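User: I'm curious whether this sequence folds into something compact or stays loose and floppy. Could you predict its structure so I can see for myself?
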Amino acid sequence: MPHFLTIEAAPRSLIRQILQRAIDLRALPEPVALKGKTLCCLFEKPSLRTRVSFEQAMRHLGGGVMSMAANEVGIGGRESPEDIARVLSSMVEAIMARVMDHSTLDRMAAASTVPVINGLSDLAHPAQALADVLTMIDEFSPGEIDGLAGRTLAFIGDGNNVARSLLEVCAKLDVKFVLCAPSGYELPEEYVQSVRARSPGFEAAVVLDPVEAVLHADAIYCDTFVSMGQESEKAERLENFRRYQVNQELVSQAPAHAIVLHCLPAYRGIEITDEVMDGPRSRVFQQARNRLDAQAGLLATLLAPRSA
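Assistant: Here's the prediction. I'll summarize afterward.
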């Protein structure tokens, strides 16, 4: 069953198929590709871009969609993830879930007979990573996935679920990856090494200095310093990340062609300034819009694969 839970678990060929389908659907829509098929979306965490992009993508492809909040379903409380997956997979063709704990997705996928898609978990945000690299393709090699090879993505901030998915997708598309975080907030070195081992030749670095991180960057990426569930650490995190703000002074150290990305929601004036987010280098809102195209490519690939 072609579940989509992490970039790590998705074969390189599948990532390329999804991105190519997203690109092709822009030029040649397939409005009935998913006619008669239904996607059920489950939300344990609040959502704007994830909900709208998946719902609209399914509708654009001719399918049906329904969305349900966690308190309606009782995930892990009133009903186990396994039972929910068994019931839903007897009635719909795919399940997208945005959850607190990644193990919920693993349990659902083990029991489901239809694809389970990760709309965000504490471990990974693979659907976001698809839109991120699609935005880089648009900027640096329109329509050509291979054109990203050799480019550099610098992630400034916490080594979180978004950073993990970006590291993995960069490895599969031959994009250099730099993570810049305060000591103690980076991705574990053993994990980074495991990605390198799985993708021979992949260049990944972990640095402490934001200027060093952006010197050769084609894209500068940032995210909130305080994710959902980390509110008790807010004061400490904001102090530790104080010099990691993506502002005009930092961006000016990057090559003139470098763009700025943010997965949103953004806390303006904290991890990114208004001047940068609304400035000429920002591709933040194009990136948000690309969630729709990326999710269309993902759903079409999983539910209506092309013949070989």
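Summary: Strands lie at 38-43, 64-69, 94-98, 116-120, 152-156, 176-180, 204-207, 219-222, 259-262. The chain has two domains: 12-125+291-303, 126-288.
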